[in-house]
Amino acid sequence: MQNKKEILDNLRQQGFRSTQIREAILDLMLKSNKLLSCQEIQKHLKLKANKTTFYRELQLLKDKRVIEELKLDDGVRRYEMSSRHHHHAVCIKCRKVKCVELNKDIKSQEKEVEKNNKFKIISHSLEFYGLCQKCQAVKNKNDTF
């Protein structure tokens, strides 16, 4: 994973100047060890930037593959720094999201899907849904899962 200076230098080389809000978003995202929603990012930043500017900065960082967007079944867009490809385990009760590394080679699975379906895969998304350890401990009788 790149550091803030490398990311900003790379963006400058592409013609994008450094902005206060972009630097603040990067600082937060680099320090965070979890996925963050737009609301969580805004809450942590406490910057007086308008929403259009904020969303434009998120979009630029996403377009330049500095951050990745994940949209789960609850419709909330969450962001994390781009890194090695990985998947997520999502608690259906508290919505906690945890990064998951798969030991098996998923590339071979992709090749099989492409071959069997005459389909060119560009990317894939794989999330596991269930209950985190904490929510398992407090599962009540009325839960249907």
Structural class: alpha+beta
Give the mean pLDDT. 85
Distance between the termini: 37 Å
How many domains, as an integer? Answer: 2
Total DSSP E strands: 6
| CATH topology (fold) name of the largest domain | Arc Repressor Mutant, subunit A
* Oligomeric state as shown: single chain
Helix content: 40-55%
Give me the side-by-side strand order of the main sheet: 1-3-2
CATH class of the largest domain: Mainly Alpha
- Percentage of β-strand residues: 15-25%
Shape: globular
Radius of gyration of CA atoms, rounded to a whole number: 18 Å
**Sequence of secondary-structure elements:** HHEHHEEEEHEH
Number of helices: 6
Q: Which residues form runs of ≥5 with pLDDT under 50?
A: none
CATH superfamily of the largest domain: Winged helix-like DNA-binding domain superfamily/Winged helix DNA-binding domain
Structural description of this entry:
The protein is an alpha+beta fold and 145 residues long. It folds into two domains: 1-83, Winged helix-like DNA-binding domain superfamily/Winged helix DNA-binding domain (Arc Repressor Mutant, subunit A); 84-145, Ferric-uptake regulator, C-terminal dimerisarion domain (Dna Ligase, domain 1, 2-Layer Sandwich), CATH 3.30.1490. It is 41% helix and 17% strand. It is built from six helices and six strands. The strands form two sheets. A three-stranded antiparallel beta sheet has the order 1-3-2. The chain is globular and about 45 Å long. The model has no long low-confidence stretch (mean pLDDT 85).
Keywords:
about 140 residues, alpha+beta, Arc Repressor Mutant, subunit A, Dna Ligase, domain 1, 2 domains, three-stranded antiparallel sheet, three-stranded mixed sheet, 6 helices
